[in-house]
Design goal:
single chain, 423 residues, alpha/beta, 2 domains, three-stranded antiparallel β-sheet, 15 helices, 11 strands, 39% helix, globular
Length: 423
């Protein structure tokens, strides 16, 4: 797998006069999208063509979590050549945690860099999107002008809010996700069907289960799943984090996780550092399950021989976390014209199909298939779901909305204090 890293952020720049013109066009594009009365704005496609022309010769530094092999391969093998055809170079910059990219953006902002920032585009959602939004770090207002926006369902709630935070046209949807468990049906023919059964199975099969230590993305998601499913029926977390609600709602979670600790792999004395490490334990047969927030990637892992052929995915009957991840452009991006064009390109039917097809990344599309042109409707309809994962039509069944983004960090810190610290 190719990994592109950069410490200097260059790329051939347009002539200063051209860049000044482009900045004006971009300002007009954003202003008309936000302020013009109906019927007075220029057609988005026309303005977007000007941005496409301005983007030629630019190099986009795409910061994204480096631990997702399927996502990395999709960007390297599909996105990079598609962008090259538009005259845009994509440099994938892997980070251990998306927070690292957001902190780089905020650091440039604090240093007074209104332009020329190190990050042009970032794969983001949840608390990291919230942190950037609270700091007024994101470029907003452009998404209604994107040509491929017409293929989205405007009534889809997951495209309006990100972990409970209003998106406000500050990010572009890229991929759907659903938290699920993965098992080897040869070793475990009948997996637990509910979270309660899973807890019972872990305790009766000591050493055969574990989870990554938060704040690893997947480990954190596991803790949030356990949190939501530990709440009394009908109880919801408040949209905004509050200490009082935290003190009332989290004690059952910590009791549940601490009760599991002695039955975990190595007696809970250590945890995999990330999901890749957990996947390795699963592939080597040291544990009977792994977990993922993208069950669509499992077939590709089986095809590549990473997971055994008998690998299957299951979601607890009472539901599991579901969300949509996005792409965001910082206000101070050095190459924001190309970043905007790339965001729209990654939303196109061509790249969404490449992302969804088995053998590729296998990630679920964010597009509304009913809104696609007929040829693309047929291509997406031809996608078959391998028996190793759950079908797209079941993706939203029982999906539990994520807690508000500002709950994530307190839960991660609470786990470290109440669970890891208690071991």
């Amino acid at each position: 797998m190719r990994t592109r890293t950069r410490t200097r952020h260059g790329g051939r720049l347009a002539h200063p006069t051209t860049r000044s013109l482009v900045a004006g066009v971009a300002a007009v594009v954003l202003a008309t999208g936000a302020c013009s009365a109906p019927g007075t704005a220029s057609p988005p496609e026309k303005d977007w063509d000007l941005l496409r022309e301005a983007a030629r010769g630019q190099s986009v530094n795409l910061f994204m979590y480096g631990g997702d092999r399927g996502a990395n391969a999709h960007v390297d093998d599909e996105v990079v050549p598609a962008a090259r055809a538009l005259g845009i170079t994509v440099e994938r910059v892997p980070v251990a945690d998306t927070q690292d990219a957001v902190q780089k953006i905020l650091g440039d902002q604090r240093a007074g860099k209104d332009s020329g920032g190190a990050v042009d585009l970032v794969w983001v959602n949840g608390e990291n999107f919230r942190a950037g939004k609270e700091a007024d770090a994101w470029l907003c207002g452009y998404t209604p002008l994107m040509p491929n926006r017409k293929y989205l369902d405007p009534d889809d709630p997951t495209l309006a809010r990100d972990f409970g935070i209003d998106i406000d046209d500050c990010e572009t949807p890229w991929s759907r996700a659903r938290f699920a468990f993965v098992h080897d049906s040869a070793r475990l023919p009948e997996p637990p069907r509910t979270t309660a059964e899973l807890l019972e199975w872990i305790e009766t099969n000591p050493g055969r289960f574990t989870y990554p230590a938060p704040p690893d993305f997947t480990g954190s998601a596991f803790v949030r799943h356990m949190f939501l499913t530990s709440l009394p029926e009908g109880t919801r977390t408040p949209p905004a984090f509050g200490e009082q609600a935290y003190e009332v709602l989290t004690p059952p979670l910590w009791r549940r996780l601490n009760a599991l600790t002695p039955s975990l792999w190595r007696g809970g004395t250590t945890y995999p550092r990330d999901r890749a490490a957990l996947d390795e334990l699963f592939a080597d047969g040291e544990v009977d399950m792994t977990m993922t927030y993208n069950p669509a990637e499992v077939p590709a892992l089986v095809e590549r021989g990473v997971f055994p052929p008998e690998t299957r995915v299951f979601v607890p009957e009472e539901g599991s976390l579901g969300n949509t991840s996005h792409l965001a452009v910082p206000k101070n991006a050095a190459h924001r014209e190309a970043a905007l064009v790339l965001s729209d390109l990654m939303l196109s039917p061509e790249l969404q199909y490449a992302k969804a097809r088995p053998g590729g990344w296998g990630a679920y599309t964010v597009l509304d298939r009913d809104r696609l042109p007929e040829p693309w409707k047929r291509r997406f309809a031809s996608l078959t779901t391998p028996e190793t994962t759950i079908p797209t039509e079941d993706l939203s069944v029982g999906a539990l909305p994520e807690p508000g983004g500002d709950w994530v960090t307190p839960l991660d810190k609470g786990w470290k204090r109440e669970v890891a610290g208690a071991s």
